[in-house]
Design brief:
It contains two helices and four strands. It has a four-stranded antiparallel beta sheet with strand order 1-2-3-4, covered by helices on one side. Helix content is 39%, strand content 18%. The protein is globular and about 30 Å long. The protein starts with 6 loop residues before the first helix and ends with a helix. Helix 1 runs parallel beside helix 2.
Length: 85
């Protein structure tokens, strides 16, 4: 079966399936292996994705994708908190 996933879908899958690959630095979730960052400090309204060390804007996504991403971010944060206890 042919899969043509958008980058946002891959990020959401990583957040949900492998939360241990991410860490929270106080303002954003950062993927350990790639340095990909998700700015979450201002909540879902200002959610954005960027690559640390690279210039330019991250991928654009629509409202529904933003809500799916926010849900995955919350899941990942909850998983990280549970692993710390």
């Amino acid at each position: 079966m042919f899969e043509n996933k958008k980058p946002i879908d891959k990020i959401i899958k990583s957040l949900r399936d492998k939360p241990e690959e991410w860490y929270f630095d106080g303002y954003c979730l950062v993927k350990r292996s790639s340095g990909l960052g998700i700015w979450i400090a201002n909540g879902k309204t200002f959610l954005s994705i960027y690559n640390r060390g690279a210039s330019g804007d991250g991928p654009a996504f629509n409202f529904i994708e933003k809500m799916r991403l926010w849900s995955a971010v919350r899941y990942c944060l909850q998983s990280l908190v549970l692993h710390e206890q």
